[in-house]
Amino acid sequence: MSSRHIKVLFSILGIVTVVGGIFFSLRASGEEDVSFRNNEASFAEVPSPASSTPLSGITATSSPMKIPILVYHIVRPAFPTDSRAVRALAQTPEVFDAQMQYLAEAGYHVIPFRLFEDHLLKNAPLPSNPIVLTFDDGWSDQFTYAFPILEKYHYTATFFIFTNPIGHHGFLTWEDLQKLLAAGMTIGSHTLSHPFLTKITNPAILWNEIDGSKQILEKRLGITVREFAYPFGQYNATTTALLKQAGYVVARGDYVMRGNVQSADNLYALSALNAPTSLELFKRTFPAH
Ligand SMILES: [Zn+2]
Fold first, then answer.
1. What percent of the chain has pLDDT over 90?
2. Domains of the chain (ranges, CATH numbers)
3. Which of 18, 111, 135, 249: CA 20 to 30 A from 28?
4. Distance 9 CA to ligand 1 centre (A)
């Protein structure tokens, strides 16, 4: 078998594993609806107080600052068959549009992840009330529905992609990713197969998830990948050390539990917030300035 065949086989195996895992988790939780589209939420990071071990050696010596990193997963019209898990992570295009419009009206400034990094690392000046937008997992719906709305408001966002399913049904294609880049979006890594990194015991597999995904994105897109998002928000000292070794500059850690307070001491465990699913909740979370 050629190395290309092996790569294709591994991609397929990865997807089978992911879909199988979703099927199992939904069956286990009593959900009967197992159609693929309704399973998107299974990739979502589930907030758990025990899920992330605070990194040793991190101290709050830098002054903390409030810069929200918003995490979106599913932006598309709602289906009557959508499970509760999906609804908890989804915005309709209308709601997403209203949220984006509100940000500008309420005095927020959407900034690229890179400017946020430069601020943390080099104290680059930021506009008032900065906010960072991110999209997880590389669902094609994000390209179809969210991307045109981002462009409408001249906002930039970072898309965290796990590479195995790129080009497969329901996921972004390489061409989509090129178009996102051409429009000023950022592409970050979300591993190869979206595993629980802290559960991987084989160092070579762990390295491949972290560094291999970076290499694939960089080679195919001609970019340098600086940003990483931990699948399920889970990390430990080992994963973070490997991220540094691979050359990532920042990583988005767990969310919900940590909120929007950032510090330069926390570059590999940046806090984030799940995007509220309604405009009302969004306004409450981000009051007007
Ligand atoms: Zn994810």
1. 71
2. 57-285 (3.20.20.370)
3. 135
4. 22
